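step 4 of 6: structure.
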Amino acid sequence: MAPKRRSPKKLRLVKSPRTARTATKAAPRKPAAAEGKKRRPALRTYDAATARRVGAEQKAWEQGEVAKSLARAPARRTEFVSDSGIPLPTVVTPADRAREDAGSLGLPGQFPYTRGVQPTMYRGRLWTMRMFAGFGSPADTNQRFKYLMAHGVTGLSTAFDMPALMGYDADHSMSRGEVGKEGVAISSLRDFEILFDGIPLDQVTTSMTINASAIVALCMYIAVAEKQGVPMEKLGGTIQNDMLKEYIAQKEWIVPPRPAVRIVVDMIDFCSRKMPRWHPVSISGYHIREAGATAVQELAFTLADGIGYVEECVKRGMAVDDFAARLSFFWDVHNDFFEEIAKFRAARRIWARVMRDRFGARDPRSWQLRTHAQTAGVSLTAQQPYNNVVRTALQGLAAVLGGTQSLHTNSLDETYALPTEESVTLALRTQQLIAHESGVDRVVDPLGGSYYVEYLTDEMERRALEYIRRIDEMGGIIRAVEEGFPQKEIGESAYRYQREVEQGERLIVGVNAFQSDREEPIQILKIDDSVAEDQEALLKKVKVERNAKAVSAALAKVEAACRGTDNLMPPVLEAVKAYATLGEISDVFRKVWGQYREGGIF
Amino acid sequence: MTDRKLRILVAKPGLDGHDRGAKIIARALRDAGMEVIYTGLHQTPEMIVNAAVQEDVDAIGLSIMSGAHMTLFPAVLDLLKEQKAADIEVFGGGIIPDDDIPRLKQLGVSEIFTPGSSTQDIVQWIRQHIQPRA
């Protein structure tokens, strides 16, 4: 359906999906001003006459010095593009930026937040160094958490094992061989108690990377905190809980998309009322990117997911300013240094405009895109693993220059296994080196105004908005996901990337260039199968010691809430406290909504 | 040289949802002229072997990133033996430490393709090592 032009006089709360205005047709033109507000006159960064003069000089330069240089020796490529395909000129000048509107940059902490969501950014407070950790038993991970805290992490981040992520207990047949392998094994509240033993939940913030069974994990966290005497309203942290990207990319699910989104909205609703310091969702681009998306696709599909969640919450009857400030994001940081920085900046600008102009949010905190970032796991190589330290350092630097609120840096051995203590320490030191030795923390948005970075920021915004417009035309992201649109785009990009590597168009040091025969053996972390045995034994014990009737009653309440419209958080919390297991609660979801299966399309 | 196309089952056993590699390989094998069936995600060893037998494939490629390879490869091999289909060759790849590869080969896995393997290497290997089953 074609976008309707809205009367500039009226500003009303959006109740139905509306197409975002895009600047797609012509070459850089002034971004659309806020709907319903007086069109702010453009604040041209560059004086038109100066831009013209520079343009003339640039033309002469191209025909002069550049032509001479190319006549002596051709350029290394016939064309240069960013990793997502944005054409890159030899150099960017004020002439190319003649129409740049300084108002679309603003100042840090000022709409549209291109330059950062806080006015003083790292001068006020460094980004949170939040290292993803989790393996083996809850006791193993508890130990790793404490190790990391002793070495300078400023926030916790929890990795769960595949059974927990997929809603299976340690003793389920689907859990065979998987317990504790990709993250910490969790089946009941007892495991959570061990996991956070000796960690004061009123003093640390914790992120939990879990989605399909996120509601169980969050309730377990709340229950553990209560036992510590910490009420839920004091709890700070994030739960990933972004189901849309699961169907698109990470592929961890229990029930089909629509009931999964219902659970997400229940959690956003609950947290907006009861947990003001908690981020109930981390709208993620990381997994979308790792699955093969380009930076533009990552930007577009993630923001589209965000738009989808906001729409669902508004449909539920929530006021946008009641929940929007607690939404958070999660970006990948891949190899193309400047493109990644531009992605962070474009994301903030797009989201600010979406929240204020499309959804009518009035509270500035609703307009602010806060994000975690992780360096790109998929860029790491098994060959010459020490090269990964360098990759991670460059990527971490890009995230900081992009203005992330929180950062995880990968370890050098992660193409083989979960990180050892040694490798995760080096990854953490990487962040500390950036923070304390590189000097990039001293000025906010230091690359702001760079002709190139502003060009890339505009291009990424333009291209992402085009995708968002297409998704709107499909009827929104949930529809698009059901139709397989983002999945297909990602599959194509992944295949194209692999072809480029295999044809030598894209070089990966150590893999298809600068290979080495020399072995570089590294110690890797091994998870023993005894973890599975121990977890099963503990689970048996928990089941014996708990009150079976209380568990049945609690699970019945969960089922009733699933079948009705009551918020699922209270009954799940009660079930968790009765030591109903993660698998048992997930089975209730399966019973009501069915186990989702994805077909074998490639 | 064979008249008929090789039939390969590409499978994702266990709970691992990382399918970027499996899909690329499935596509590359198809582009190389093989008949490819991709099982989709979250397959049990039983589902995989049943599909392999039903589809009468010549080989199964397992993609495992989750660290569960020492459980899942042997489970598939055992079920193939049980179903008198041990002539279906099993190969695979993913996040599999070098140290585990000798043991897997001892158990009957024909080849493991570690990170950085090219699709062309895999195609070549299949052409050289996988025969159409009688």
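step 5 of 6: annotate
 - The first helix of chain A runs from residue 48 to 72.
 - The longest strand of chain A covers residues 327-333.
step 6 of 6: archive
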